[in-house]
Amino acid sequence: MKKLITLCIFALAMFFGSQSLMAQTSIITVNEKASEITEKLRKFIKFDNEQEDQVYAAYKEYMQATLDLKNVANVEEGVREKINALLEDKMQAILSEEQYLRYKEFPKE
After folding, report:
1. Under a CB-based contact definition with an 8 Å cutoff, are residues 95 and 47 in contact?
2. Are 42 and 52 within 8 A, CB to CB?
3. What is the DSSP string of 10-71?
4. Taking the C-alpha atoms of 8, 9, 10 and 14 in order, what is their torsion angle to the nearest 10 degrees?
5. What are the CA-CA distances from residue 56 to residues 2, 7, 24, 38, 103 (Å)?
6. What distance in Å separates the CA atoms of residue 5 and residue 104, rounded to the nearest whole number?
C-alpha cells in the first residue's frame, strides 16, 4: 500500500513538472521569436535603443497572444484582427511617421 501511494505521488509530481516545463518552453519560444523579429526590424527600420525595447515588448505581447489563441479550442470571430490591430496601434505609437511607413513595407512572415 505504501508503494502504491508513493507511485501515485511520483506520477502526480511528474505531471505537474511536465506542465511547468511546457510553459517555460513556450515562454522561451515567444521571447526568441520576438527578439528575432525585433532584430530584423532594427536592421530594416533603424530605430534607437528605447524604441527597440518598446518594439520587443510589443512583439512579445503579440506573440504570447497568438500562442494563447492556438491553445484555445473555440476562438471568437474578430479576435485575430483585434490582436493584429493592437500591434499596429502600438507600432504606430512607438515609431515615427517615416519609420512606420518603412514598417508597413516590412515583409510579414
Report:
1. yes
2. yes
3. HHHHHHHHHHHHHHHHHHHHHHHHHHHHHHHHHHHH---HHHHHHHHHHHHHHHHHHHHHHH
4. 100
5. 51, 44, 19, 6, 14
6. 59
Q: How far is CA 14 from CA 17, 21, 108, in A?
A: 5, 10, 39
In Å, what is the CA distance from 46 to each residue of 29, 64, 99? 25, 25, 8
Q: Among all chains, which residue has been given the C-alpha cell 527597440?
A: 52
Task: For residue 30, give the C-alpha cell.
Answer: 515567444
Q: Residue 106: pLDDT band by 50, 70, 90 thresholds? A: confident
pTM score of the predicted model: 0.71
Q: Is 78 helix (H, G, I), strand (E, B) or coil?
A: coil
